[in-house]
Amino acid sequence: MIERVGISLDSKLLKQFDKLIGGKGYSNRSEAVRDLIREKLIEQEWAAPEGETVATVLLVYEHETMELSQKLTRLEHEEFHCIVSSMHVHMDHENCLELLVLRGPGRRIQKLGERLISTRGVKQGRFIPGTMGSRL
Ligand code: NI
Questions:
Q1: Is residue 106 part of a domain?
Q2: How close is the Cα of 121 to the center of ligand 1, in Å?
Q3: Would you tell me how many other CB atoms lie within 10 Å of the CB of residue 118?
């Protein structure tokens, strides 16, 4: 069910908001406001000490860098309960891209993501917090 709500904003703030969402490609304010609310709810989900959530980790590294591949693989096996899926792409002769989908308690999977990203030799690492979506 969709409910309509009206909100009051001062014109300066509204102008800034329109500028912000225009640059992001939103075609109307409603979808932009919905996304902002969802973003806050996801933040709350991540702050909760209990419960389960999901995240994606992106890693770029050279597979021939001393022991790096083994280190990452070892870490991934240690935490296999938290890794739902992984994809490895051999991008060229030297570089690999790995995408992992993590699922588990927020703090635990964040820590795993940080450990992977901070492993010496990883050229690029990103941790993208997700959501199970059940509260949105
Ligand atoms: Ni590779």
A1: yes
A2: 14
A3: 9
Same domain, 92 and 117: yes
pLDDT band at 136 (very low <50, low <70, confident <90, very high): confident
pTM of the model: 0.79
DSSP helix/strand/coil, 14: helix
- The encoded tokens of residue 44 equal 């709350």
User: Hunting for tokens 């790096």 — which residue is that?
Assistant: 68
* 2 within domain boundaries: no
Q: What is the DSSP letter of 135?
A: T
Ligand 1: centre distance to CA 95 (Å): 6
1 in a domain, yes or no? Answer: no
What is the C-alpha end-to-end distance of the chain, expressed in Å? Answer: 13
CATH number for the domain that contains residue 96: 3.30.70.1150
